[in-house]
Design goal:
about 325 residues; eight-stranded mixed sheet; Metallo-beta-lactamase, Chain A; alpha+beta; single chain
């Protein structure tokens, strides 16, 4: 009888662990135990250094990539300038203050919109004139007196030893709406998959898509709390229907061990490769490696990492 009880308890524990895998992985595998900031890259870099930490790269005369290649995740944010207003897509990790580097590039009022609410993308919220978020019913309902408290698994800041912050929201941007910066319009796209409230920005005139963590060179995280394989598939289809086939896709993270440190850029062909993998997964026509997450090949420079069939649907 005792062995039966022990066995039953082990089975129940295994089931609970499997069901809660995204949260368990986040709690035990994400926390950083090494240095958050390392030495300058030993490979060539594109752009100019600002205060030995930020790397500023000019994409065109009104578009700048602001990298943090010394941070262990290699984050990139993007500054878009119009005639009347500047838009900062993502605001860095907060390890260093991004305000001085942005102010070295523009004196225009700056609105910050994060691609999503993970800790490594919201470090500068509240440090500029205005903060905008996707007009999402859940985010709206949780906002009181204009202030949103980020949830533990929405923020994931415990990975770097950070407490979930309170964010003042000045503007709510509807999915599909256009933001007029003065002589430059940018479309707001709802792009769930990595998180439920992820957004991307599309500058149709310049054929530039800024997509945060939805896609980037490396292993795509689709196994943490809030991630969804089906949303990844839907978003991939919607992006391919909207953006120009010649669009340049700028993402939020450097590839591991790059030969040149430059703003991480992909092409529509990479988005199409992701779609093929997602379709093959749905049809059980591709094999994964690993136990959790399960990793599927997308291209020589990209993999798709997801949870069990009952997680991250």
């Amino acid at each position: 009888m005792k062995s039966f009880v022990v066995g039953a308890c082990l089975v129940i524990a295994a089931l609970v662990a499997a069901l809660c895998a995204p949260y368990g992985y986040a709690e035990y595998a994400l926390p950083r135990h090494g240095a958050l900031v390392g030495p300058a890259p030993s490979v060539p870099v594109e752009g100019r250094w600002f205060d030995d930490y930020f790397l500023v790269q000019t994409l065109d005369v009104r578009t700048f990539a602001i990298g943090e290649p010394r941070y262990y995740q290699g984050n990139y944010s993007y500054l878009l300038l119009g005639d009347r207003q500047a838009l900062l897509f993502d605001s860095g990790t907060g390890v260093r203050n991004m305000v001085p580097v942005v102010r070295s590039l523009t004196s225009l009022p700056v609105t910050v919109v994060p691609s999503h609410l993970h800790f490594d993308h919201v470090g500068g919220l509240g440090r500029f004139e205005r903060t905008a978020l996707l007009d999402d019913p859940d985010l709206r309902a949780r906002t009181h007196a204009g202030v949103l408290r980020l949830g533990r698994y929405e923020f994931l800041g415990f990975a770097d030893g950070l407490e979930a912050p309170r964010v003042r929201v000045d503007e709510w941007w509807l999915a599909g709406s256009d933001v007029d910066l003065g002589g430059r319009q940018v479309r707001v796209l709802h792009t769930p998959g990595h998180t439920p409230t992820s957004v991307s920005l599309y500058d149709a005139d310049r054929k530039l898509l800024f997509c945060g963590d939805f896609i980037y060179p490396g292993e795509l995280y689709a196994f943490l709390p809030g991630a969804s394989r089906s949303a990844y598939r839907s978003t991939t289809d919607s992006l391919l229907a909207v953006i120009d086939p010649a669009a340049r896709i700028f993402t939020a993270h450097l590839a591991e061990d790059p030969k040149v440190v430059t703003a991480p850029e992909l092409r529509v062909a990479d988005l199409m490769a992701l779609r093929r993998t997602l379709v093959a997964m749905q049809e059980h026509a591709v094999q994964s490696t690993g136990f959790y997450p399960r990793v599927y090949p997308v291209s020589p420079s990209m993999q798709f990492a997801t949870g069990f069939p009952w997680n991250n649907r």
